[in-house]
Amino acid sequence: MFGGTHNGWQMLSRCLECFVAPLRVIGSTFRDYLRVDRYIGVVLIIFAVLFAPLIPRATDNPQMLSTASNDDPWMAMALDATLAKPFGNPSNYFDPNAEAYDNIPSYWGHLRHSYDNIIYYGGAVFALATPIYAAARFVGLPPFPTAPIILKSISFLGGLLSLIVLYNFASRFGMRLAGLLAAVYLMTDTQFGYYTRVSHPDTLQLLLALFALAIAVRHSERGDWPSLAALGLMCGFVQGAKAGGPWTVPMGLLALGWGIQAAGHRLGDLRMTAERAALLGSTGVLGYVVSTPYAFMDPYLFRTLASAWVYEGLSGASEGPFGRVTMWTWIEEVRAHSGPLAAILVIAALARVAISAFGPRQNRAITLAAVLSLSQFLWYGGLGRLWVIVGYLLVASGVMAVLGFDTAIVWLRRLAQVGFARLRSGNVVGSKLATAMVVGIAVLLGAPRVLQSATSTLLTVSFWNSTYAALNDWALRNGVPRDARILYDDLAYFDPNLFPNAVMFGSALNWDAVDANAPDYIVLSSSIYAAPHYRPLIERQKLGRDELQDRNTGAKSVRLYQDLLPYERFGPTELAGIDYVAEIMAKEVPFKQPVWSLPSPLPLLNWALTSIWLSEYWLRKSFALIPAVFSPERQPIEGATFRLYRITIPKGSRRPQFACAEAVAACINFKERLTRGDQVVVAMDACSENIGTIQCGGDYSVRYWKDGKIWCHTVTGPRAGSDETVTVPRDCLGNPHQNVIGIFDVGFSFNRKGEIYYPGSKKSVLVGHLKIPELAKPLNDDRDH
Fold first, then answer.
1. pLDDT interval class at 738 (50, 70, 90)
2. Which listed residue, of 146, 239, 456, 763, carries a Cα 20 to 30 Å from 717's Cα?
3. Which residue(s) pair with 488 in the sheet?
4. For the chain, percent of residues with pLDDT exceeding 90
């Protein structure tokens, strides 16, 4: 009996070891790669000075937070939602079908339902933040500024710890100097700085991916199963941070193959390979489940991811709303962001890795690092069809910086050693000279970047020195009534206690939204009209005021900007009742720029002189900003530029319908008609053939109503292939609020003109028109009755 008990304890012990052993690997990796020495310690102090003061910025309320970035408020809302039922689910306030959706706290103001069906990336950041936030709320701390400060702190710590891991990875494999230079380079990258300042999971994902790389190297050298399971878990955590699991797969498979060899097995042993691949894959899924449990308990996340894939993945149109985005577009943007010197170093590093990978002196660490970097770039470059965001490539930026700097050091040392070969101590002299050259180049490259980051911190450390605060002050000074309806497109700020009817649209504003919200003031932000994505649209797009988007590309209408931005003088515009009343923009703090200039015909010398000039420029600007930042007077020294327009309707006059200002036969708000339950007629008078059971040329009577949280409708009309008229008393396809209606299980979109479009494989096709019954022919012509 005691023997059986002993055997049972042994089995239990072995089972526990299966779970504990990978965690030990992860723990030892954390311990080894989070060591701080005096070199990286100095970098961390600079990092803290640059970014820690920005953590509490603009966190007083949701409206103020929305000026930090577009993502900050809904990330905070997702964290706030984890305390609703079911506990821990970030989608509680985003999903219209969730019970908590109808009970979003009032302090969210007009943002309460601004983020319906938005993606929350993954659950890893909330797995860390929710327990802290729950404890903070339990002891009585308010949701604001508590929630955004917690999220921003995670972004800050993710960036700080990533620099430590990157440095230790390089140091561990004989690249300490390269690791130190790469840490400084990454720290001063504008994209890295942006994601460190805001509530975003990118720096957390960077940290987890670097840990995954470290564990992958360990497994490739040892081939033990705990490190393989730990690698799978870490890749699953990367997926949970921000859907980054796919670009860790090539690195994981390469580490798996080398691990099999390191364990003394052959890759040809299919059973062994299959077992290890199954372990890697299953622990990867387990890591994703642990970090994002509600992805498997609630279909919301996968549903919204699938929706985004339609626009951003391979299924997206090559000619997207912001133009054609290809792999070459990504290469050009990365090269423009990093500069020609960095591009040369990356190419040299990749060539070195290729030589090493296929040569006798194989370096598995740098090969796995290069594979991870290339995988991330190819994932976004190959699938990112919507736009180019260089900041998505933080892992590639940091790791390739290490490999690039180390390649420069190695090759310059060899060249210098050849040059000083005749000297007795030629190798030592050559090595020191090469190191000094690389450090000098890094200083010239990094000095202006560090000083520019310091300037950025000084500019943004105080919210009250921003144009967002100045916009609110302008409204107070100019007597904007408390009950005024204010509609702004993006990143503006109006104190919710002073201007409760100020509403953010959240993207490019259109005339249809102006008609629907009937504002007294319109505010346009340069964060939209001056953004690289929107400028070409404003220059070239040709749409009517009643059109919401380009049917061919899916680009949202920017007609409102085309109509209002050309006016440079304050006063009436050509649009009846609309006056251009103010422009709020940042004021440049005066300072003396460097007056010297030493142009050189030598490109390298010219680059060095330019770096010195820029360093002096940013240093002078930083010193000039200090008194302005600490002055008790508010002054807008940073932020977007705002253009304000007032809509004045004479008493007794009817408010104009701006979206119907052009040649429209009848200005009918079909969206309003449908949402309030009026009957409309869908005349299929523009199609060339039947659509399923919908008869081309037929008229269909449709009426919608809200059934709980979904829209349902009844439809009556002819069925194709028969003479009968069919009535479907209840169907729940479409959403009038989103300009979508359904007929016989087929969805159609409609615009302000009442045009009905059927979604085709490449572009939507006009198939019919909406009409109101009194203007349409009767569905049943009963003249004999």
1. confident
2. 763
3. 504, 523
4. 60
- List CB contacts of 728: < 8 A, sequence separation 6 or more: 714, 715, 716, 744
Q: How many CB atoms lie within 10 A of CB 763?
A: 14
Q: Which uninterrupted H or E stretch holds 190?
A: helix 190-197
pLDDT tens, 229-283?
999 999 999 999 999 999 999 999 999 999 999 988 887 788 889 999 999 999 9
What pLDDT digit, counting tens, does each position of 46-65 carry?
999 999 999 999 999 999 99
- Among 764, 759, 757, 781, smallest CA distance to 699 is for 781
List all residues 6 or more positions away from 113 whose beta carbon is below 8 Å from its beta carbon. 104
Token pair 């890749």 is at which residue?
235
Of the candidates 180, 604, 189, the one whose C-alpha atom is nearest the C-alpha of residue 405 is 180
CA 678 – CA 776 distance, rounded (Å): 14
Measured between alpha carbons, how far apart are the two ends of the chain, in Å? 95
What are the structure tokens assigned to 209, written together? 């991916």
CA distance 614 to 448: 6
Residue by residue, what is the 3-state secondary structure of 545-563? CCCCECCCCCCECCHHHHH
Q: Tokens standing for 178? A: 């390269």
Which DSSP category does 60 fall into?
A: S
Q: How many CA atoms lie within 13 A of 63 on its CB side?
A: 23
The structure tokens listed for 260 are: 């099999």
Which is it for the CA torsion 5, 7, 10, 14, positive or negative?
Answer: negative
What string of H, E and C letters represents the secondary structure of 192-249?
A: HHHHHHCCCCHHHHHHHHHHHHHHHHHHHHHCCHHHHHHHHHHHHHHHHHHCCHHHHH
What residue has token string 């010239």? 444
CB 501 within 8 A of CB 486: yes
**Which two structure tokens, joined as six digits, stand for 662?**
């052009």
- Give me 636's structure tokens: 């807008």
Cβ neighbours of residue 605 under 8 Å, at least 6 residues apart?
none
Query: Between 394-419 and 364-383, two packed helices, what is the crossing angle to 10 degrees?
Result: 130
pTM, two decimal places: 0.85
Task: Tell me the HSE value of 506 on the side-chain side, using a 13 A CA sphere.
Answer: 13
Query: Is residue 721 exposed (0-12), middle (13-18) or buried (19+ Cβ within 10 Å)?
Result: exposed
User: How far is residue 175's CA from residue 188's CA, in Å, rounded to a whole number?
Assistant: 20
Structural contact between residues 645 and 522, judged by C-beta atoms closer than 8 angstroms: yes
Angle between helices 340-357 and 394-419 in degrees, nearest 10: 80
Quickly list DSSP for 67-119.
TT-SSHHHHHHHHHHTTSSSTT-TTTTT-TTSGGGGG--GGGGGGTTSSTT--
pLDDT in tens, 20-43: 889 999 999 999 999 999 999 999
Q: Which of 356-360, 366-370, 444-448, 611-615 has the highest mean pLDDT?
A: 366-370
For residue 159, pLDDT over 80 is answered with yes
601 prior amide bond cis, ω within 30: no
Strands 699-707 and 710-718: antiparallel
Residue type for position 630: F
Residues 374, 380, 381, 383, Cα dihedral to 10°: 130
**Segment (H or E) for 48:** helix 38-51
Question: DSSP assignment of 233-298, as one string?
Answer: HHHHHHHHHHS-GGGGHHHHHHHHHHHHHHTT--TT-HHHHHHHHHHHHHHHHHHHHHH-GGGTT-
Residue type, 115: Y
